[in-house]
UniProtKB/TrEMBL annotation:
CDD domains: AdoMet_MTases. InterPro entries: Methyltransf_11, SAM-dependent_MTases_sf. The keyword Methyltransferase applies. GO terms for molecular function: S-adenosylmethionine-dependent methyltransferase activity. One of its GO terms (biological process) is methylation. It comes from the Bacteria. The keyword Transferase applies. Pfam families: Methyltransf_11. Residues 22-122 form the Methyltransferase type domain. Keywords: Methyltransferase, Transferase. This is SAM-dependent methyltransferase.
């Protein structure tokens, strides 16, 4: 996903430009810190105090120059209008958040509001068009049959959450003046691998295969996750 994001940044902004980045649902700060190391100014928003503490801990291990580029805000991602002025950011990330939000449209509209004209909105969502793939490949045909007609699922943490369909998010992005510019699949071949699975001996080859599949039909359409990039008009 980082490679996909870097591809979109390179295609939209001049080389060397320092971007104003908002990361809603910063989690442990993986993407935020990576972008700060590249020279960008990053603001991270996170509601979960445990994740805020983890992000602060990770940030504390960075050199001072990188720490100065990152600001952490504890708050709800749906309240971006409270914290930020319209057009405040060149790049807005919202990765792995929408599945926890019952009504995602207001959240996405708020993200577009704080995006500057020509700015990039990056969403990572659970693929509602391919929910049957995981139970089907895991040997659970009953679960696969149930998944065909639903966007609800239980994630690996045991939480009841929701998925998004590409067509519906495409319509949402068009309606908030940040139409879909590009989309990718994420975790095409590796969705069944557990978080504690050992890294393969040939990780670069696996990443190359995932990257190729994530931009190639029909493979990207059955990925566990979708990475959608909209551009503010």
């Amino acid at each position: 996903m980082a490679r996909q994001l870097d591809e979109q940044i390179a295609g939209r902004f001049p080389v060397g430009r320092r971007l104003r980045v908002l990361d809603v649902g910063i989690g442990q700060g993986t993407q935020a810190l990576r972008l700060a190391r590249l020279g960008h100014q990053v603001t991270g928003v996170e509601q979960d105090p445990v994740m805020v503490a983890a992000a602060r801990e990770a940030l504390a291990r960075e050199p001072e120059g990188i720490r100065e580029r990152v600001r952490l805000v504890q708050g709800d991602g749906r309240d971006t209008g409270v914290h930020f002025l319209p057009g405040s950011f060149d790049l807005v990330l919202c990765h792995g958040v929408l599945m926890y939000v019952t009504e995602p449209d207001p959240l996405v509209a708020g993200l577009a509001r704080v995006l500057a004209p020509g700015g990039l909105l990056s969403l990572l969502v659970r693929n509602g068009d391919a929910l049957a793939m995981r139970p089907g490949l895991a040997g659970d045909p009953a679960g696969a049959l149930a998944a065909f007609d639903s966007t609800a699922y239980t994630n690996r943490l045991g939480l009841n959450v929701r998925a998004d369909r590409l067509s519906e998010l495409t319509a949402t992005l068009a309606g908030i003046a940040a139409p879909l510019h590009a989309w990718y699949g994420v975790r095409v071949f590796t969705d069944l691998a557990g978080d504690d699975a050992p890294l393969p001996d040939d990780l670069p080859t696996l990443l190359a295969a995932e990257e190729r599949a994530g931009r190639t039909d029909p493979y990207r359409g059955v990925a566990a996750l979708l990475h959608l990039c909209g551009v503010r008009g």
